Amino acid sequence: xxxxxxxxxxxxxxxxxxxxxxxxxxxxxxxxxxxxxxxxxxxxxxxxxxxxxxxxxxxxxxxxxxxxxxxxxxxxxxxxxxxxxxxxxxxxxxxxxxxxxxxxxxxxxxxxxxxx
Length: 116
Description:
Elements: E1 44-47, H1 55-59, E2 77-81, E3 84-94, E4 97-105, H2 108-115
Antiparallel strand pairs: 1-2, 2-3, 3-4
């Protein structure tokens, strides 16, 4: 067998991290600069309800079929941002278009707990 000698590890280059003094006057210790993410697009979706049906029934659906949802009439809709529940609301009509009036916003701590 041919063995090769291991080369000594080279010193890793040091990362250049910003210090608190480098942040500039616009940011203080408690501030967070959100400007970098303000233009990131987010998909909002509203869920009226859900239903679980067998494939046999799914294949029998046609125009005029009615699918019963698990949610009752008058219950608030769920509002999702990129698939994460953020609020509940009710349907409104504004200038002949549907909209949603938020009635309850999920707290940040609840959203974080659901991620775990």
